[in-house]
Amino acid sequence: MSDTKNLIWSIAEILRGDFKQSEYGKVILPFVVLRRLDCLLQNSKQDVLKAETSLPRDADDATRDMVLFGAVGGNVKVYNLSRFTFDSLKGQDPAQLHDNLIDYITQFSPSVRDIFLEKFLFTDSLKRLNEAGTLWNVFERFSDLDLHPDTLSNVEMGTLFEELIRRFSEISNETAGEHFTPREVISLIVDLLIANDDEKLTGRGLIRQVYDPACGTGGMLVLTEGALKAFNDSVRVELFGQELNGESFGICKADMLVTGHDPEQIAFGNTLTDDAHAGKRFHYMLSNPPYGVDWKKYRNPIESEAANMGFSGRFGAGVPRISDGQLLFLQHMISKMRDDEDGSRIGIVMNGSPLFTGGAGSGESEIRRWMLENDWIEAIVALPTDLFYNTGIQTWVWILTNRKPQDRQGKVQLIDASGERFWTSMRKSLGSKRREIPDDAAREIVRLYYEFLNGESGESDISKIFDVADFGYREIRVERPLKLNFQVSAERLSRLGEHKAFARLDAGDQSALQSALETIGDRLFLNRDAFGKVLAGALKAKSIRIGTPVKKAILAALSERDDAAEICTDKHGAPEPDTDLRDHERVPIHQNWREYMKREVLPFAPDAWVDESHTDARDKKVGRVGYEINFNRYFYRYVPPRPLKEIDAELKMLEAEIAELLEAVAG
User: Fold this and answer.
1) What range does the domain containing 505 cover?
2) Residues 504, 577: contact at Cβ < 8 Å?
C-alpha cells in the first residue's frame, strides 16, 4: 500500500505549474475514486450492460437500480453503463480521451454521477488538464494502478484515501481547517469514546452504528471504524453522516464507495434544518462542528422547531445566540441517543463558548442546565491551543452518554490537558497548526479519564471530579432603597427642558410652570412626599394643572440621589428600589439564598432585600437558575509576579539598547 500511496502522490507532481498546490486534491482524489470504481466494476461490466438491455422501457428508477445493482453483485451500490473502461480507453485515440472520459463519468448510477459532476466538479478539472496537455499523462499513470479489492482491501483503501485527504488538506493551509480535523485529535476523541466500552465491544455478531452530523471528508467516521475493528475485528460498523459543503460531501461519499460502505448513508444538506437521518439512533456520535458560525439565515426553521415541537423535537432545551450554533449540533446529537441497554456515547470538540457563554435564563445556560440535570455530561477535556489548521484558539472535548456507570453518576470529570506536557511543537507549521498531541500524551489523557482520577497520584492540577450541582447557581436580584433629595435650583431647573413631557408643552405653559416652581425657593427636601405636597401647593396657587408625565419629569429633574435622604415608598408604603443600585448575586444552587444574603450581602448593605418576584421560569422559585463550567476557576494556577529588581534590570538593558540604536541612527 505504501508504494501505491507514493505513486499516487508522485502523480500530483505532474500538476505542478498548471494547478496550485491547494488544487491538487481536486484532481487526484476524484481520479483515485474513478480508478477504484473501475477496478471494482470490471468483472461485472458485461453483466451490467446485458441487464440494462433487458430492462423494460417503462422501468422506474428504483427498479432500474435494483436490477443493475444486482448485476454488479455483492453489496456494491454503483454501476456504470458506458462502453468504456480504463483498459479500453487506453486503446482509444488520446485526442479523444477528454470526451471519452466525460462519457464514462456521466454513465455512472445517478448518486455517483452527482459526486463527480456536482460535488467534485470533476469535468472542470478534466477540461483544465486537457487544455494544459497533461490529461493523457495523468490518466495513463492512474490506469497502471491496481486498486482492485483483491489487491487493496476495503480497510487498506480507506487508510490510503484518508491519508491522501490528510496530506492534501495539509498543503491547502488556507482551507484545511474548514473540513479537516487533525488526526491526533480525532484519535483522542475516539479513544475516549470507547475507553469504558470493553464489555460492550466484546463478542461476535455485534453491530455498531457511528454518526457524524458535520462529517466533512469523513475522517472521524473512518478512524472510529478503525478503532472499533482494532478492538474487535468481527464488529460490523455502519457509518452515517451529513455534510453541507459540496466538495467535502463528495470526498466523504466517495470514501464510503471505495471502502465498501453504503454511500447513501452519507447525506448532503444542512443538518440543523433538514435532518437526513430523522428517527435514526446511533451507538457512537462524534463531531467537530463549526466554531462561532452564525445561523441567522437558518433562524426561522430552527426557532420554529424549538417553539412548536419542544422536547419532542431537537431543540427543546433552547437555542443559543444567533452568532454561534455549536450547541445546536450538540442538542441534535443528544436527540439521537439510543434508549436501550447499550445507550449512546457522544464526543464533540468545541471552543470555549458553550462552557460559559450566556447568563442565567439564556439559551446557552438552559441547554447546559438540561444536559447537566439529565446527567449526560461525563467528562470535558481542555486541549492545547494551536492544534487546528485554521485557528489557534483553545478547544475542549466533551464526552456525553446516557448510560453512565454507577461511579460516575451525578459526577462530571474535568481534565486540563492544555499544559506543555500534553503537546509538542511541530517542526513546520501548517497554517495555524503549530502543535500536535504526541501518542504518549494522548494515552495519558485517556488514562486520567479511564481511571476517573480526582487529584490522585499527584494529578490534582490536571484531573478533578465535581458534582453536577457544583456548576449550578441561582441568580437573585438584590435591591437597594431609592433615596432622593429635591431642590428647585437653577441647575436642576435647566435639566427640566431635557424631558420630553415638558418639551411638548407650548412656550407659555413652560414659562408659567417654571415661575410656579421658582416660588418654592431653593430649600432642600429630604422626603419625596413632603416635596410633593409643597409642589402641589405651588401649582395650585398659580392655577396650573399638570398630567402625570409632566409631574414625573419635574420630580426626575429636581431630584438627586442622597444617602442622607429618607427612603421613597410606593402607595402601599413599601420601599421603592433604586434601579441604579440594583445588583445580582450568584448563589450556589445547593445553598439557601436567605442564608447567603445574611452571610454575604447584609453585613455590607443592611438595607438590601431580594426581589422575590424575580423567579426561575421553570421551577418558579426565587432566582433564575444558571449553569456554567469555568475551567479557569477550577484550574487556576497562581503565577507570582517577577521581582522588581529583575524587571528594573531588564528596563535598564532595554534603555541602553534603545540609546545605542538612536546613536547609530543619529551618527
Assistant:
1) 484-561
2) no
Same domain for 342 and 241: yes
Report phi then psi at 159, rounded to 5. Answer: -65, -45
What is the SS3 assignment for 466-477? EEHHHHEEEEEE
Looking at the domain assignment, is residue 391 inside a domain?
yes
The helix (H) or strand (E) run that includes residue 239 is strand 236-243
Cell of 657: 539598547
* 615 located within any domain: no
Question: Which residue is associated with the grid cell 447567603?
Answer: 596
pLDDT digits (tens, 9 = 90+) for 478-497: 999 999 999 999 999 999 98
Shared domain check, 192 and 164: yes
Of 569, 486, 552, 487, whose CA–CA distance to 521 is shortest?
487
CA 3/CA 546 separation, integer angstroms:
94
Coil, helix or strand at residue 494: helix
Q: What is the mean pLDDT of the chain?
A: 90
Instruction: Show the DSSP H helices in 81-218 as ranges.
Output: 86-90, 97-106, 110-114, 122-132, 135-143, 154-171, 176-179, 183-194
Do residues 228 and 237 make contact, with C-beta atoms less than 8 angstroms apart? yes
The reply to whether the predicted model has a pTM over 0.90 is: no
**How many CA atoms are closer than 13 Å to the CA of 597, on its beta-carbon side?**
22
Please list, in sequence order, all residues whose beta carbon lies within 8 angstroms of the beta carbon of residue 384, skipping any fewer than 6 positions away.
394, 417, 418, 419, 422, 423, 435, 437
What kind and span of H or E run contains 490?
helix 490-496
Q: What angle do CA 37, 39, 45 make, to 5 degrees?
A: 85
> Whole-angstrom Cα distance, residue 479 to residue 180?
51
**Band (632; pLDDT cuts 50, 70, 90):** confident
Contact predicate 375/399, CB 8 Å? no
Q: What single string gives the DSSP state of each residue in 291-308?
A: SS---GGGHHHHHHHHHH
Q: How many domains does the chain have?
A: 3
**552-564 residue pLDDT tens:** 999 999 999 999 9
Pick the residue with more confidence: 285 or 25?
285
Q: Do the bridges between strand 266-268 and strand 236-243 make them parallel or antiparallel, or are there none, so unpaired?
A: parallel
Domain membership flag for residue 432: yes
- Residue 480 DSSP code: -
Residue 559: Cβ-neighbour burial (10 angstroms; 0-12, 13-18, 19+): buried
| DSSP code for 485 | E
Closest alpha carbon to 70 in 108, 44, 104? 44
Say what the alpha-carbon torsion angle 52, 54, 58, 64 is, to the nearest 10 degrees. -40
Q: Which amino acid is it at 501?
A: A
